[in-house]
Amino acid sequence: MYEAGGYAVLAGCSISLVEGERGQMSPENVQRAIRKVAGSDSHYPECTLICVENTANVGGGSIYDQETLDAICEVAHRNDCRAHMDGARMFNAVVASGTDPARMVRDFDTISICLSKGLGAPIGSVLVGDAATIAEAHRWRKMFGGGMRQSGILAAAGLYALENNIDRLGEDHARARRLAEALDAMEEYSIDLGAVQSNMVYINCKKDGAKTLVNSLAERGVDVLDLEHGVDYGDISTLRAVVHLHITDEDIDRVIAAFDAAQ
Q1: What is the CATH number of the domain that holds 234?
Q2: Helices (H) and strands (E) in the chain, counts
Q3: H helix or E strand, kind and range, residue 163
Q4: Which residues on adjacent β-strands are paired with residue 240?
Q5: Spatial distance between the Cα atoms of 233 and 238, rounded to a whole number of angstroms
Q6: What number is the average pLDDT over the span 118-132?
Q7: Please, which pLDDT band fits residue 230 given cuts at 50, 70 and 90?
Q8: What pTM does this model have?
Q9: How far apart (Å, rounded) are the C-alpha atoms in residues 114 and 51?
Q10: What is the arithmetic mean of pLDDT over 75-86?
């Protein structure tokens, strides 16, 4: 859906999107999506990687249960595929679910973790995997121009985030929940409260009202993302609001008041 189709341009990969409730794939649908060259008379691509995002962004920040994660990894490995967790917001899932992070990713071959977003570092992500995988990834990063001589100061910020900003993610989740419940009670908006499981709030509004609403909120100092472009949500428009460590209780009050005034 995103990243400008870079996977195809840069890596020559094809992908298969798997539909799921609140953005979460089921093991059964993952199995159905896997295609292999063998037996296809060379028609099918060779599926070699299954990617799981936790929390699920377009699912409203929803969180996979551990049984499902384990089952998806089992499907991947049974079909001679590697399993990767896109853990951009993995620690949100860890804190909200109470799952030990090592247990959450036990059966995955690789994990990516974003040090900014909820953890609050100014920049940076890390890739976790075995030594051979990391050595190969290091080489590809070099070829793609991703090497950085000034990484020490960024690593220091990332270490601070990992050591100090994980447990406090629960504060973001509580504020997101308060925001979601307040907006859902307003006449002009609706929210799937069951999907508000971490720090994201997806707000449904009138189909033609998203851009006007975004502009109105911006004038009041509130920035939200309009997801209308490239995604068909039927008769509604959807906005995404994300709570992070710079958002206070007073800020949530201001956001609620801004949405109320923009109705």
Answers
A1: 3.90.1150.10
A2: 10, 7
A3: helix 151-164
A4: 202, 225
A5: 7
A6: 95
A7: very low
A8: 0.92
A9: 16
A10: 98
